[in-house]
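Protein in question reproduced for absentees:

***
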Amino acid sequence: MFLLLVVKIPKVQNNLNPERVVGVDLGINVPLYAALNDNEYGGMSIGSREQFLNMRMRMQAQKRELQRNLLHTTNGGHGRNQKLQAFKRLQDKEKNWVHLQNHIFSKSIIEFALKNKAGVIQMERLTGFGRNKNDEVDEGYKFILRYWSYFELQTMIEYKANATGIEVRYIDPYHTSQTCSFCGHREKGQRISQSIFICKNPDCTKGKGKQEKDGTYKGINADWNAARNIALSKKVVDRKKK
């Protein structure tokens, strides 16, 4: 027997600032990075690449072992069926783990927004996410995009935000990681690595980070810079349209 019950969940009334925006950057080193549009420092990283890779590689090794065993079980029967069931359980375990992580990550974003009284959350539209100018998936994103559901993560953030009275917007992701969030200068090569961003505008000091004794600059957190660009962006777009 099934009971299908439609329930209207009332929105929680929070004292939020509609001018304060949380930008959410989806990345490789960390699944999520959050930054505010009106804060020139701070932010929050959520999750880690190491945790993700360790868990998924362990599960992948177990799946390969089961697949090898299945290749040698050619006559069917009870033994093969048991191995197939074990393989299916492992696949379900993978999906459930990603689903749980997405719940944890989305909850953290909502808590960050509420803590800072932010009335808006902005995220990049996923169309073309992780792809280069030739519409090919960049090497660094291949493994993550194959095994992680960013669309599900954004969906969870959206419905949890809606329940707390936070507006969700999607913005054009064009060059959010290559633009300085302080001066707006965009130039190829400013994102030195996945973790470091150094603005090449000679008149910009904040986008270079701390200056070293040898005259070079330490740089700023590249994920935070991208998240702040997302928070500052006015290029609101439809989530699904290209």
About this structure: The chain has a mean pLDDT of 83.
